[in-house]
Specification:
The protein is of the alpha+beta class. The chain has helices at residues 16-31, 60-67, 70-80, and strands spanning 3-11, 36-44, 47-57, 84-93. Strands 2-3-1-4 form a four-stranded antiparallel sheet. 15% of the residues are buried.
Length: 97
């Protein structure tokens, strides 16, 4: 079963360009991780400061490797996270009905 994250960020006013600049290398590096199946950012068409990320990993261990990575620390924890006004995160597992 894949481990999936649905993440919604509302970015502080005036911080969007900086967030997008950090999100580009974060996305590129994340997609290169051996356990990453999908890492896709989306933007709300009605509010450009609202971003939605859908991430899919082989399993929770692969996600943890992502969360422990240097690129996550540099681009997400140190750069993007302080620029967020709010954040929501939900984890899911794939299944076959």
């Amino acid at each position: 079963m894949a481990y999936c994250l649905a993440v919604k960020w509302t970015i502080k006013k005036g911080e969007l360009d900086a967030v997008l600049a950090a999100l580009r290398p974060l996305t590129e590096a994340s997609r290169q991780e051996p356990g990453c199946l999908l890492y896709q950012a989306h933007r709300d068409p009605e509010n450009e400061n609202v971003l939605f990320l859908y991430e899919q990993y082989l399993d929770e261990t692969a996600y943890q490797a992502h969360a422990d990575s240097e690129h996550f620390k540099t681009y997400a924890l140190e750069d993007i996270f302080p620029r967020r006004e709010s954040a929501e995160r939900a984890a899911y597992e794939t299944f076959q009905p």
